[in-house]
Amino acid sequence: MTDTLIAPEWAQPGTDLSGSTVVVVGGAGGVGEGIVRALLVAGATVVATSRSAGRLEEFARRIDDPRLHVRELDLLDPSLSEEAAALATEFGGLHGVVISVADWGRQGRKPLLELTDPEWEDQLRQNQTTVFRAYRAFVPLLDADGMILQLNGLSADLPFPLAAAVAAGSAATKSLTRTLAAELDGRGPRVYELVLGFIRTRPRRLAGIDDPNWIPATDVGVHVAEVAAATSPIAGHTLHYFIDQTAGPRAAADQG
Ligand SMILES: NC(=O)c1ccc[n+]([C@@H]2O[C@H](COP(=O)([O-])OP(=O)(O)OC[C@H]3O[C@@H](n4cnc5c(N)ncnc54)[C@H](OP(=O)(O)O)[C@@H]3O)[C@@H](O)[C@H]2O)c1
Questions:
Q1: pLDDT digits over 183-211, tens only?
Q2: Is the CB of 102 under 6 A from ligand 1?
Q3: Which domain range does residue 219 map to?
Q4: Is residue 87 part of a domain?
Q5: What's the rounded Cα separation, in Å, for the pair 59 and 82?
Q6: What PANTHER family would the database entry show (predicted)?
Q7: DSSP reduced 3-state for 148
Q8: Is residue 229 part of a domain?
Q9: Is residue 199 lining ligand 1, measured as CB closer than 6 Å?
């Protein structure tokens, strides 16, 4: 069974995703796990993906919920569109997709001017091409009243010394998401960009890195569930920031 989730004070009543299927790409990751747990509590059928079969097996065993399904998926796989279509067929349609994907690269922290071409190309593929391909594969499959949401970090807006390629990816995908929302212009699924502050995750906790002032990953999940169910008071806005645990999620109302 899913762990008991303590709803944050700002949580909305009536968030019910029973009968809806939501795919969480990167669902077995740190923030992804919190989102999966909150979506399950909200009644959704959840498909959590990872590139690693072993990771999915451990994840499914740990969460142990009959509405949780796990599938191997790599956003860079040439057959991504076919795999996404197969998921939609298997689950009788998809209401939502959450893109909880990040990759810091093998180069670690490194000054911008020292990045090699292969390191740059790898980061471009992992942090930008992934999101583009997720949109191209999944958006046409989503319910008209469904949604797709990309998670991002504050490096979308701020300099991030020693992580230039990650920051460039954050800024680029924020732009990509907002452009997609403008292109769809209300036709088809809702499109969201959720920029996060520091998040408390299980992998961080296991590594001894934690701070009670950070936002629990499950709180991010509660917001994602409310956006998917359209019970969030800011569901009409594309660009969301969740930086402060107590204040809860906020819309950047002047930016769409
Ligand atoms: N943690 C924070 O404090 C924080 C703060 C701000 C924003 N965020 C955002 O939250 C999201 C998740 O971050 P996290 O902290 O949870 O990181 P994480 O634990 O490393 O999870 C990232 C996930 O990305 C997946 N992934 C990487 N490349 C992929 C690909 N080619 N295809 C499919 N999946 C791929 C990985 O899946 P595998 O299982 O296949 O490896 C992994 O589960 C990111 O968008 C990040 O920017 C996090």
A1: 999 999 999 999 999 999 999 999 999 99
A2: yes
A3: 21-255
A4: yes
A5: 25
A6: 5-KETO-D-GLUCONATE 5-REDUCTASE (PTHR43669), ALCOHOL DEHYDROGENASE, PUTATIVE (AFU_ORTHOLOGUE AFUA_3G03445)-RELATED (PTHR43669:SF3)
A7: strand
A8: yes
A9: yes
